[in-house]
Amino acid sequence: MIIYNSDLRAFLLQGKDVSYAMYVGEAGFLQHLYFGKKLSQADLQFLTAYHGNAVCAKTSDFNIDKAHEFAPTECGFYARGDYREPTIVVRRSDGAAMSRLRYVDFDLVDGAPLLEGLPCARSGGQTLTVTLADDFSAVRVKLNYTVWDDSNVIARNTEIVNGEAADVTIERAFGFAIDLPTGDYKTLSLVGRWAQERIPQIEDIGHGIRRFQSMRGISSHEMNPFVGILKPDTTENTGDCYGVQLVYSGSFAITTERFDNKPLRVQGGINDIGFNWKLASGESFVTPQALLCFSSEGIGGMSRSYADFIRDRIVNPRFAYAKRPVVVNNWEATYFDFDTDKLFALIDKAATLGVDTFVLDDGWFGKRDNDDSGLGDWFVNTKKLRGGLKPVIDRCKQNGLKFGLWFEPEMVSEDSDLYRAHPDWAVGKLGNEPSRSRNQLVLDMTRKEVVDYVFEAVSKVLADNDISYVKWDMNRHSVALGAKAHDFVLGLYDVLRRIFAPRPDILLEGCSSGGNRFDLGMLCFSPQIWASDNTDPIERLTIQDGISYLYPQSTMGAHVSAAPHAQTLRNTPLNTRGNVAFFGCLGYELDLRTLLPVEIKEIQGQIAFYKRYREVFQFGTFRRTELGWQVSDGKVTLAGVFHRLVNAAPGYERLRVKGLKPETDYRVTSLAQAIRVGQFGNLLKHVAPVNVNPNGALLRIADRHITLPGKPETLTASGAALAAGIMLSPLFRGTGYAPEQRTQGDFGSDVYLIEESDGE
Fold first, then answer.
1. Residue ranges of the chain that CATH labels 3.20.20.70
2. What is the pLDDT of residue 701?
3. pTM
4. How far apart are the two ends of the chain, measured CA to CA in Å?
């Protein structure tokens, strides 16, 4: 709900548990009043009185400009009184860029706006548009605010309108700005690198300007387009937490600025380094949307608010609550070395495991036998696949599986028919030596003919074949676009919209060199995104944990790979590989043809368990815990307990489960573990009835076919007891095997099922 008080010239935006307030000061500036716990309309009187006295914005030009230096504003302007970084910089034809933006009027409508060429939040709400006019030009700025009654998220974006007779140049176009009260804060950001994406980082905000950004042309693995602002005492479950993330997939910047006794300014949008947008007379420019969030329940409260909002208003409604298929992808099984017969063998094996969809990855097109060739030639390589894709798809159908296919449409190989025909379509080619990475170049998606080619080539493959799942990859970046970087992103959004809007039943999975471009812009098109090229489950504990700070589990592609792992050589138990992947969209990316009998049985059990509770894992309320993660749908709770390195004499662990009814009794049962006999090594000769050589053939055969039954833990406890923490069975702490112990070793894990007790 949005309330306007005409006497105070104040606006109050009311969400579920949050309020956002601003007003028009005496000098005509739109000033920020409040963002936090929900207030009443009556509180506007106090807020405006306080700020009016503090700002002292009188009528002389000197006082107007001086007052604005300390005023908490909604849009920082340039070179006139406000010595902080501006939100918008527009240079006029005479070379001047000075601005001073004052309130003109407002408009209030039902619903969320659609942004031309840009993805954005959808469905319901109310939108307030406040128009500001520049004192020194005919440029106007429109600030859009959308609020939903059932959410703690507020959407913001900005529109710049050129009312000048001549062209102007936009040099900065941040979509939001907010000035928080003076005080101490910390920032929360998600940083990383390839194969180590979205690591949470918390830092004190000192004096000066801190910039969180990507200059890669995409939102990047190094920095997610998000910043959290925390009070010093904020924890996972308590304290005030502000969040802002951009609905954008290109180069971005979010800044914090703190000086003296001035408010803390947080603002951001399109990265302004190299940004230079010519805006003709009468035209307008729309910035990407920013989603602001407030939680008084710590970081976890912010996470849950964002997750709910993304499911309900970012993800395509066709897939918002649609069960994600269990997939098997052939990449780590075959890489480029496959043919029809090898794929048939993988498909047949996948069917016996309970898999839903088979996904054919890189290497099916053009002359693509390695990383050096073929990108851009989106026609089937019939030397590999006799008869094309149809026999493979038919084999999937015969086994009750659906079929998915990999593309990398934004790229081109120099050794390709496309490049030989259109070398000028590559970014940086004309008159320059293009930058290369992975022996490929970036297609110039700013050009209509390039976008049209991608649309036609991909659409033809989809039209000619029964494909239910598409993996859209992008394995390199470019800074050569310069001022055209934003155009590139608009071209990407355009082609995605044109390809998939007529095909609403195709599940699109985004991917960009693994975990790049995991952002809200892509999630508007791809309901799930490949979390990282690093599928090592112990590494994934950190990666998936970082993702959970912002995104629901249903958006996270999480696969089980072989062990020892290809990137770490870590030998992680199969149950842990499965348990980690459960807390996302489960898939398998290993050679099914080489699985041992015990592994086949275990994977069959994993998939059956996951499918039984798939909707809880994918759409349940997620919480980070002391020992791992939990998800709950209000009836069923699933808690994961994960270990890294174990100790010889481990202490006792307590399982704490949040969000249960305190006075209700719950049955807690651990998922049965299959314990490989080879795990005990030399210890076997001390406990076996016969002398067993730990390195002999007998044990090797037994390890392939036999597992020891781990006794599931079963107990009953109240919701209050579970919230306080219940004692778990002891970990392995001595020679031998005992079913009542949790036999884990390094990198072990458990999953606990918590359901209301039936009284038994």
1. 327-622
2. 76
3. 0.95
4. 48
Q: Domain 327-622 falls in which CATH fold?
A: TIM Barrel (3.20.20)
The catalytic residue among 361, 377, 415, 473 is: 473
464 catalytic residue (yes or no): no
Is the omega angle on the peptide bond into residue 564 within 30 degrees of 0, that is, cis? yes
Query: Which residue of the set 82, 240, 377, 533 is catalytic?
Result: 533
pLDDT at 703: 73
**Is 533 a known active-site residue?**
yes
pLDDT given at position 435: 67
Inter-residue contact 214 to 252 (CB < 8 Å): yes
pLDDT of residue 688: 63
Query: CA-to-CA distance for 41 and 35, rounded, in angstroms?
Result: 14
Residues of the chain with CATH 2.70.98.60: 2-313
The per-residue pLDDT for range 89-132, each reduced to its tens digit, is 999 999 999 899 999 999 999 999 999 999 999 988 999 999 99
Query: Quick one: CA dihedral 513, 515, 518, 522, positive or negative?
Result: positive
d(CA 156, CA 736): 61
Candidates 3.90.1300.10, 2.70.98.60, 3.40.190.10, 1.10.8.60; CATH matching 2-313: 2.70.98.60
Q: Which residues of the chain have pLDDT under 50?
A: 52-60, 62
Structure tokens belonging to residue 16: 């579920």
Neighbours of 140 (CB within 10 A): 17
**Nearest-CA neighbor of 174 among 277, 244, 268?**
268
